[in-house]
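Follow-up to my earlier ticket, as requested here are the two runs.
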Amino acid sequence: MNQRNMDFRIDVDAVADSAAKKGKWRRFRPRWDLLTLMLLAAAVCTWTLYYRLCHDNARLHVGIQTMKDQSRKLRIEHPDRLAVVRLPESWYDETKWDVALPSEEAVAAGGARYKLCLATREIDLPKKGFPPAAGFVLPPGRHQIELKTVRKRTGWNIVALLDDQAVIDIREPADWDPGHGGAGSGASWERPYQPGSVTQAVPLYHEVFTMDTDRSPSEGPSNGVLLWLQPLMDIDQ
């Protein structure tokens, strides 16, 4: 017989049924009834919910820790003067303070009213007075103060904000900050602070730029950023 004309065909189902009847092995045939599908869907939903809960719990933990850091309460021992604390950064290069200013009643009884001052030139090292500055008289009560330095194509914008509203905006040319670094204390008051008297000014931010290319500290007043709270005398009010 010619093998090329031979037709080898095997009925797999017939062989499986025959073997199953003889008890040699059983063929597994899954049954997808409604109950099985419902149980499978419930299992998938349970594991998905568990994963989301783990993810949300981690995010909530970070948020709670951030709120704890931001819940630094100002200790106001002297109601006739301000109290201030720097707020933790919620994003890169954020500079904010929480400030409590004396009420109208406290001011009427001899407390201090304050002006927010911002200078960008003629800034010297500490303990040498304050340079000419732009100012904004602050209203009584609890406020947030923020300092932003924004570099633009044509120069710089140095902005002081009160409760997210710009109250002082100074524009400087591109060479105002040559990019050689600087010196100063930067942002102050990581812990709650009150000045020793109603006449004491409170610096919030202090930086003096290095103007020389050799990066040596500038001698005498220089460009930079100085932000402070200045108590107003009766003649200023």
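Run two:
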Amino acid sequence: MSLPAVYVFCIGVYTSSQIRRFRRQGEKRKAWLYAVFMATSAVIGALLIAGVPLPSLVVPYKVVFEPIGKKLLSP
């Protein structure tokens, strides 16, 4: 097995035990929210372990604000 697969498996086992605990306590909304966050972090973590370059979170802001800045600073 590759390292990202082992990582996802371990995160999955831990997450499923936590979700069962939340559901036993009657906190279904918290269980869903936890599952979504953990699935997202598992995918991002596996991609980072595999060495896949992820896009920066700055790019959308740069696309929006760069033209505004250029208009303000141009003579």
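The only thing I checked on run two: The mean pLDDT is 91. Let me know what else you need.
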